[in-house]
Design a protein that fits this description.
The complex is a heterodimer. By secondary structure, chain A is α/β, with parallel strands linked by helices. Chain A has a single domain, classed as Purple Acid Phosphatase, chain A, domain 2 (4-Layer Sandwich). Helix content of chain A is about 30%, strand content about 25%. The longest helix of chain A is centred in the first third of the chain and has 14 residues. The radius of gyration of chain A is 18 Å and the shape is globular. Chain B is α/β, with parallel strands linked by helices. Chain B has one domain: Purple Acid Phosphatase, chain A, domain 2, CATH 3.60.21.10. In chain B, about 30% of the residues lie in helices and about 20% in strands. Chain B is built from eight helices and nine strands. The longest helix of chain B has 17 residues. The two termini of chain B are about 30 Å apart. Classes of the chains: A alpha/beta, B alpha/beta. Chains A and B meet through strand 2, strand 3, helix 5 and strand 4 of A and strand 2, helix 5 and strand 3 of B. Strand 4 of chain A pairs antiparallel with strand 3 of chain B, so a sheet runs across the interface.
């Protein structure tokens, strides 16, 4: 079974549409979104609507959470600044974001051993903690133990990687999905992941789970221009062009 | 957030198609399938394909477990010798018609899916299982002793537990709180899309609504709607009769 995992769309509709086209071509058996649908761009409602329309299982990211405390007045939509990205969000979509779960866990019993895949936005300890490629190995293993995770999938840092940690002849995987709509690894293309679970997938077999990073082109310039033509800071447009 | 939950399609394509038509009109935000895609009718491959095509997160039912492993045991608790004999025909027929790719899909389905919520300072887990958290083929009937039901949910760390397998829908609210305060847990059987057994032959599924102000101390903070929908029962029953499957399964569809 092939599962598509993506996150950190950040209201970038042109990138999101390109990702969906690529994903639909890939025909995965299931798809999950690991949060941060909004912020930094002008299309939060369009992104949320498409995710809701498709019924994709979705987590709450720290930007999605931020919206809960936001007070929007008629004036808010006239004020330049980064909060414009959140003020745009409709009440109905705010309610949706508020009722998103923090984590999703898939519990497999393929072999005699359990195999748990855990999805979180930042980490299983905190919605806005970064789990990076060089985060202390012991720290990550402890956190995974505490969360009952054999494979941990996160977003939030916008820097994709797949790390395999060995502990007592068992292999734990940590995967950062990168970002659909705001990459920060110097490659301006969008990024998401497709994993393959096989009948022999097991924590005892290092290579029994396949993780593929997919990069896709989209119209970065048009997307950046849309930011520049809005009340959002222009730095957000440059960040898309430079993927930083 | 409105979550559609369906299960126990049992290779009944006309029922599944009618379900999709119905659910598309109901503004749901997410959709999960709680297993038993195959068995008892002639369209196991088509049902699998429709669910895969839509990318619906799905867990393994006991029948999927058996077919995924090319086993002749579906884990079904048939009571009489007659039921056992009929069941044997169904599983060997299903094993015969299911193709390799579809079998591989069934083989790699997860056993449970858990949504961990952190909402309004509560931690709250929604757990999807096919039968029970302990066993894919354990039946959790409505009349189960309250203590036993609570123990199962507490052991599985489930505040809201949704399951199928019995084909008899219900929603039970249990309180595992103490003097310190209420802690409401919900046990929800979502019924069956393609083989209802509650004397209503229409297909059934559930829409679960999580309110933004939802807490464990508020009994009413989630809403459970049982939806029933009409489908072409005669087409599904005829398909059974025109196949090597026992005609008894056609009558069961007609009677619910």
């Amino acid at each position: 079974m092939r599962i598509a995992l993506f996150s950190d769309i950040h209201a970038n509709l042109p990138a999101f549409k390109a990702m969906l086209d690529d994903m639909d071509d890939q025909k995965p058996d299931a798809a999950y979104c690991l949060g941060d649908l909004v912020g930094y761009h002008i299309y939060p409602n369009e992104v949320i609507q498409e995710i809701r329309r498709r019924g994709i299982g979705t987590l709450k990211g720290n930007h999605d959470q931020k919206v809960q405390k936001l007070i929007t007045t008629p004036n808010s939509l006239q004020e330049p600044g980064k909060n414009y990205a959140y003020h745009l969000i409709s009440q109905d979509n705010r309610d949706y974001l508020k009722t998103l779960p923090a984590h999703i866990k898939l519990e497999y019993k393929l072999q005699s051993e359990m195999l748990n895949l855990v999805f979180a936005h930042g980490s299983t300890r905190s919605i806005d903690e970064y789990v990076l490629i060089d985060t202390d190995e012991k720290y990550v293993l402890d956190m995974m133990q505490e969360a009952g995770a054999h494979m941990l999938f996160v977003g939030h840092s916008h820097k994709p990687y797949h790390r395999i940690l060995e502990e007592n002849n068992k292999f734990k995987h940590v995967v950062n999905l990168g970002s659909v709509g705001k990459p920060k690894d110097g490659d301006p293309r969008g990024c998401y992941v497709i994993i393959t679970i096989a009948p022999d997938s097991s924590i005892l077999n290092k290579n029994s789970i396949q993780v593929k990073f997919r990069r896709f082109e989209y119209d970065v310039e048009a997307s950046a221009k849309a930011i520049e033509n809005s009340l959002l800071p222009s730095e957000f447009a440059d960040a898309l062009r430079l993927a930083k | 957030m409105r979550i559609a939950l369906f299960s126990d399609i049992h290779a009944n394509l006309p029922a599944l198609e009618a379900f999709f038509k119905d659910v598309e009109t109901r503004n749901t935000d997410a959709i999960y399938c709680l297993g038993d895609l195959v068995g008892y009718n002639i369209w196991p491959n088509e049902v699998i394909d429709e669910i895969r095509k839509r990318g619906i997160p799905t867990i393994a039912g006991n029948y999927d477990w058996g077919i995924g492993r090319s086993s002749d045991d579906c884990g079904c608790a048939y009571k009489t010798d007659e039921e056992k004999a009929l069941g044997k025909v169904s599983i060997s027929y299903t094993n015969e018609v299911v193709k390799d790719e579809q079998r591989a899909y069934l083989r790699t389905l997860p056993a449970h899916i858990r949504l961990e919520y952190q909402l309004n300072h509560d931690k709250r887990n929604i757990l999807f299982v096919h039968g029970s958290p302990r066993k894919v083929n354990e039946y959790l009937f409505e009349e189960r002793d309250e203590k036993s039901m609570l123990r199962i949910m507490e052991q599985a760390d489930a505040d809201i537990m949704c399951f199928g397998h019995t084909h008899k829908p219900y929603h039970r609210i249990l309180n595992s709180g103490n003097e310190g305060g209420d802690h409401f847990r919900h046990a929800i059987n979502i019924g069956s899309v393609g083989k209802p057994k509650d004397s209503d032959p229409r297909g059934g599924y559930v829409i679960l609504t999580i309110n933004p102000d939802s807490t464990v101390t508020d009994k009413e903070s989630i809403k459970v709607e049982f939806i029933r929908f009409e489908y072409d029962i005669e087409k599904a029953a005829k398909a059974v009769e025109d196949s090597p499957l026992p005609n008894e399964y056609a009558d069961m569809l007609r009677k619910g």
